[in-house]
C-alpha cells in the first residue's frame, strides 16, 4: 500500500515538476528580454546611443527622431494588439457561456438516460480548456509585442557580430517565453482537472466516463483555436494584403513605409495570426491528443487495472518534453549563438534536431517505467483471455514499453522530417524557391504557376511519412499507438513554438525599422532574421499540420471505440458512409473558400481606406514636412471589425457539420465525414501553406539581390542594344532588386499567397481536429438516437 502511494506521488511529481519548470523558465527568459529597455538607460541603451551619435555625425541616419519613432510605433502596436484581443476574447467568452450551457443538456443524455453530472463536468472541462487557450494566446501575443521593438534595438548594435547575436537571442527568447509558458500551463491545468474528477468517479469502474468528461478540455481549447486561427488569420492578411496593395500598387511605396496608414495594423496582424493563433492551435493539439490517448486507454481493462501511472502515461510524454526542451534551449542562445546571417537557419535547425534526439533518448526509460509488458487494448477482457491464440491482432500488445517507444519515436522523427521537408520547399536557400523566383522573369503568371506546382509537389513526402507513421503505430498498438505518435510529434512543442513565434517577432522588427527610418544596415539584419523566420514559421506550420492529422485520426479512433462501431466494422460501401466521405472531403474547400474571400473583402476595405487617406490628408503621400499623421486607428478598426464579422460563418460550418450529421444520419455517417475531412484537409493545408511560404521567400530572394537575369547590353550613350558579329544581342547578367519587373511579379505571388499560408492553410488544422473532438464529446448523445442511426434511422446496407 505504501509503495503504491509513493509511486503515485512520484508519478505526480514527474508531471507537476516539469510544468512548473516550464513556467519558471518562461519568466526567467522574459526577464532576460526585459533587460533591453526601450524607456530607460541600460548597458544596451548606452551602446545604441553611442552608435546613433556616430551615424548622425556621419550623416547615415539613425538620429534621435528615429528612436523616438520606434518607441511610439511600439506603443501603437501594443495598443492595437490589446484592442483586438479584447474584442475577440469578448466574443469568445460569450460563445463559451452559450455553448457550454448547451453542452450540459446534450452531453447529459447517456444511453437514453439523463445524467447531468456527466453534462456539467464535461461543460466545466470545456470552459477550463477555452479559458486556458485564451490565456495562452494572450501570453504569446503580449510577449511577441513586447519583444519586437527590442529586437530592432539590438539590431543597431556594433560590431555586426554582436548585433546578429543579440537580435537573434532576443527574438528566440521571446518565442521561448510563449513555448514554455503554454506547455507548462497546459499540462498543469489538465492534470489538476483530472485529479479533481478522480474525486468524483471511481477510476477502476468509471475510467471511461472520467476521461470522456475530461475530453471537454480539448474541445474548449480547439474551439477557441478556431476563432484565434480564423479571426487572427483574417485580421493579419486583411492588413498585410491591404498594406501591400495600397503601398506598392496604389501609391508605389514600400508596405512598411511610415506614410502607409495600414502599417500598424499590418504589424499587429503578424502577432494576431502567427502568435496568438498558432499558440491556441498547438495548445488545442496537445489537449486533444492527450484526451484521445486517455479515452482510448480507458477502454482497456488491462491498462486501467495496471494502475494510475499507467493510465495517465500520455501526460508523461508531454511533461518530459518540457525538461528536454529546457535543457536544449540554451544551445541556440549561449553555446552556439548566431554571429552572421548564414548561421541563422543552421542554429534553428540544430535546435530542433537536438530536441528530437534528446526526447528519443529519454522516452524508452519512461515507457519501461510506466507501461506493462503485455496488455490487451479492449474493454471487458484481458490479455490472457483474448490474446492466447491471437496472431496479428494489433490490440494484443506483447512488448508494451518497446512498442510505445517505437510509436512515440515515429511521431518525433516523422515531425522533424516533415519540418525539414517543409523548409526545403519554402526556404530560398534551396532550389524549389529559387525556381519560383526565376519564374518571375516572364511575369506574375508564371510565378503563380510555379508556386502552385511547388505546393502540390510538397505534399508527397509529408503524406507518405504520415501514412508510414499511422501504419507502423497501428500495427504495434492499434489506435492507442496512433495517439502516442501524435503526442510524440508534439513532444518538442516548447521548442517548436519558440521557433515559430521567433518569425513574427523578426517580421515586426523589420517593419518597425523601416517605419522608424533606421539605417539600411538595420533593415538588412531584420530582413535576414525575418527570412529565416518565414522558413521556421513554415516548419512550425508543417509540425502543426502533421500533428493535427495524427490528432484527428486518434480522436476519430476514440469516437469509433466509444460508439462500438468496430464491433461490426465500418463498411465503406455503405452508401451513407461513402456519401459523407465525399461531403467531408468537400468541407476543407468550402471552408477555404469562405476564409479566402473574407480576406479579399477585408483587404478591399483596407485599400479603399488607405487611398482615401492619401487623397484627403494633405502632404501625406508626398511626405511633406509637417503633414498630419496617418490615421492608423481607422485601419486597425477595419481589420478588427472584418475579422470578428467574417470568422463566425467558417466556425459555424465546422462546428455544426458533425453535430447535424450525427443527429440526423448517425455515427457511421460521422465517421465518413471525419475521414473525408482528414484526408482532404491535410493535403490542402500542406499545399496552401507551402505555396504561400515559397512565394513569400521568393520575393525576399529577389529583394536581397539573389536573382540574376540575362538581359541585352545597351550602349551607355545611345541606349541601343549592343550585338556581336553574328548580330545576336550581347547578354549581361543583371541583379534584380526592389522595383524591378521581377520584383513586381514576385510581389503579386506573395500577395496571393498571404491568405493561403496564414489564413486558410493553418486554419484547416482546426477543421480536422475540431470536427473530431466535437464528435467524441457528443458520441453518447449520437448513440442515444435510434441506437446511433440518427433521427432518419438510416439502415446499414452496402451497395
Automatic annotation (TrEMBL):
Pfam families: H_PPase
Keyword terms: Ion transport, Magnesium, Membrane, Translocase, Transmembrane, Transmembrane helix, Transport
Principal location: membrane
Cell compartments where the protein resides: Endomembrane system
Gene Ontology MF: a single term: diphosphate hydrolysis-driven proton transmembrane transporter activity
Spans through the membrane: 6-30, 91-108, 120-149, 170-194, 311-332, 352-371, 402-426, 447-474, 480-502, 542-560, 572-591, 652-675, 763-783
Protein name as it appears in the record: H(+)-exporting diphosphatase
The species this protein was found in: Micromonas pusilla
Amino acid at each position: 500500500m505504501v509503495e503504491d502511494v509513493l509511486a503515485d506521488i512520484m508519478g505526480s511529481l514527474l508531471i507537476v515538476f516539469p510544468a512548473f519548470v516550464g513556467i519558471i523558465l518562461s519568466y526567467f527568459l522574459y526577464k532576460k528580454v526585459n533587460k533591453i529597455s526601450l524607456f530607460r538607460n541600460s548597458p544596451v541603451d548606452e551602446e545604441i546611443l553611442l552608435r546613433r551619435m556616430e551615424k548622425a555625425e556621419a550623416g547615415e541616419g539613425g538620429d534621435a527622431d528615429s528612436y523616438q519613432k520606434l518607441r511610439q510605433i511600439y506603443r501603437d502596436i501594443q495598443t492595437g494588439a490589446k484592442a483586438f484581443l479584447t474584442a475577440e476574447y469578448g466574443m469568445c467568452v460569450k460563445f463559451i457561456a452559450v455553448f457550454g450551457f448547451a453542452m450540459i443538456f446534450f452531453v447529459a443524455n447517456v444511453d437514453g438516460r439523463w445524467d447531468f453530472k456527466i453534462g456539467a463536468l464535461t461543460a466545466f472541462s470545456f470552459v477550463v480548456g477555452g479559458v486556458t487557450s485564451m490565456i495562452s494566446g494572450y501570453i504569446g501575443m503580449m510577449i511577441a509585442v513586447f519583444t519586437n521593438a527590442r529586437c530592432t534595438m539590438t539590431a543597431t548594435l556594433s560590431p555586426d557580430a554582436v548585433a546578429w547575436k543579440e537580435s537573434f537571442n532576443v527574438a528566440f527568447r521571446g518565442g521561448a517565453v510563449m513555448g514554455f509558458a503554454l506547455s507548462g500551463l497546459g499540462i498543469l491545468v489538465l492534470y489538476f482537472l483530472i485529479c479533481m474528477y478522480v474525486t468524483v468517479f471511481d477510476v477502476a469502474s468509471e475510467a471511461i466516463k472520467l476521461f470522456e468528461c475530461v475530453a471537454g478540455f480539448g474541445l474548449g481549447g480547439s474551439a477557441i483555436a478556431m476563432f484565434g486561427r480564423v479571426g487572427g488569420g483574417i485580421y493579419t492578411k486583411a492588413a498585410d494584403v491591404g498594406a501591400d496593395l495600397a503601398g506598392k500598387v496604389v501609391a508605389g511605396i514600400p508596405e512598411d513605409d511610415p506614410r502607409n496608414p495600414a502599417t500598424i495594423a499590418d504589424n499587429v496582424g503578424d502577432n494576431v495570426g502567427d502568435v496568438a493563433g498558432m499558440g491556441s492551435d498547438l495548445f488545442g493539439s496537445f489537449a486533444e491528443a492527450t484526451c484521445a490517448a486517455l479515452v482510448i486507454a480507458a477502454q482497456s481493462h488491462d491498462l486501467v487495472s495496471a494502475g494510475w501511472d499507467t493510465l495517465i502515461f500520455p501526460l508523461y510524454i508531454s511533461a518530459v518534453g518540457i525538461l528536454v526542451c529546457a535543457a536544449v534551449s540554451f544551445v541556440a542562445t549561449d553555446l552556439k549563438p548566431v554571429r552572421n546571417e548564414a548561421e541563422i537557419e543552421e542554429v534553428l535547425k540544430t535546435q530542433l534536431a537536438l530536441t528530437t534526439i534528446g526526447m528519443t533518448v529519454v522516452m524508452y526509460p519512461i515507457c519501461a517505467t510506466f507501461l506493462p509488458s503485455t496488455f490487451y487494448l479492449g474493454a471487458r477482457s484481458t490479455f490472457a483471455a483474448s490474446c492466447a491464440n491471437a496472431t496479428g491482432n494489433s490490440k494484443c500488445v506483447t512488448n508494451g514499453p518497446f512498442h510505445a517507444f517505437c510509436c512515440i519515436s515515429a511521431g518525433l522523427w516523422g515531425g522533424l522530417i516533415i519540418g525539414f521537408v517543409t523548409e526545403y520547399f519554402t526556404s530560398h536557400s534551396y532550389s524549389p524557391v529559387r525556381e519560383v523566383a526565376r519564374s518571375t522573369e516572364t511575369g506574375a503568371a508564371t510565378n503563380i504557376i510555379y508556386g502552385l506546382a511547388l505546393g502540390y509537389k510538397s505534399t508527397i513526402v509529408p503524406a507518405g511519412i504520415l501514412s508510414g507513421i499511422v501504419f507502423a503505430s497501428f500495427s504495434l498498438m492499434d489506435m492507442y499507438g496512433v495517439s502516442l505518435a501524435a503526442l510524440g510529434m508534439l513532444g518538442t512543442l516548447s521548442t517548436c513554438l519558440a521557433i515559430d513565434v521567433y518569425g513574427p517577432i523578426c517580421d515586426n522588427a523589420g517593419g518597425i525599422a523601416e517605419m522608424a527610418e533606421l539605417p539600411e544596415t538595420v533593415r538588412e539584419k531584420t530582413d535576414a532574421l525575418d527570412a529565416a523566420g518565414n522558413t521556421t514559421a513554415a516548419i512550425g506550420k508543417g509540425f502543426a499540420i502533421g500533428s493535427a492529422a495524427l490528432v484527428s485520426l486518434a480522436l476519430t479512433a476514440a469516437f469509433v471505440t466509444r460508439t462500438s462501431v468496430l464491433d461490426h466494422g465500418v463498411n465503406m460501401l455503405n452508401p451513407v458512409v461513402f456519401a459523407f466521405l465525399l461531403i467531408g472531403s468537400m468541407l476543407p474547400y468550402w471552408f477555404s473558400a469562405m476564409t479566402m474571400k473574407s480576406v479579399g473583402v477585408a483587404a478591399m476595405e483596407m485599400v479603399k481606406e488607405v487611398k482615401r487617406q492619401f487623397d484627403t490628408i494633405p502632404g501625406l503621400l508626398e511626405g511633406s514636412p509637417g503633414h498630419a499623421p496617418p490615421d492608423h486607428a481607422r485601419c486597425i478598426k477595419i481589420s478588427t471589425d472584418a475579422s470578428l464579422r467574417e470568422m463566425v460563418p467558417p466556425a459555424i460550418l465546422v462546428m455544426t457539420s458533425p453535430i447535424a450529421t450525427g443527429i440526423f444520419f448517425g455515427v457511421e455517417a460521422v465517421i465518413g465525414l471525419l475521414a473525408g475531412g482528414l484526408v482532404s484537409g491535410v493535403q490542402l493545408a500542406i499545399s496552401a501553406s507551402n505555396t504561400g511560404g515559397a512565394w513569400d521567400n521568393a520575393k525576399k530572394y529577389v529583394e536581397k539581390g539573389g536573382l540574376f537575369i540575362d538581359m541585352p547590353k545597351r550602349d551607355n550613350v545611345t541606349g541601343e542594344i549592343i550585338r556581336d558579329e553574328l548580330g545576336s544581342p550581347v547578354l549581361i547578367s543583371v541583379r534584380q532588386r526592389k522595383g524591378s519587373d521581377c520584383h513586381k511579379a514576385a510581389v503579386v505571388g506573395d500577395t496571393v499567397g498571404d491568405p493561403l499560408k496564414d489564413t486558410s492553410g493553418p486554419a484547416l488544422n482546426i477543421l480536422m481536429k475540431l470536427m473530431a473532438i466535437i464528435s467524441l464529446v457528443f458520441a453518447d448523445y449520437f448513440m442515444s438516437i435510434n441506437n446511433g442511426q440518427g433521427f432518419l434511422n438510416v439502415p446499414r446496407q452496402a451497395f
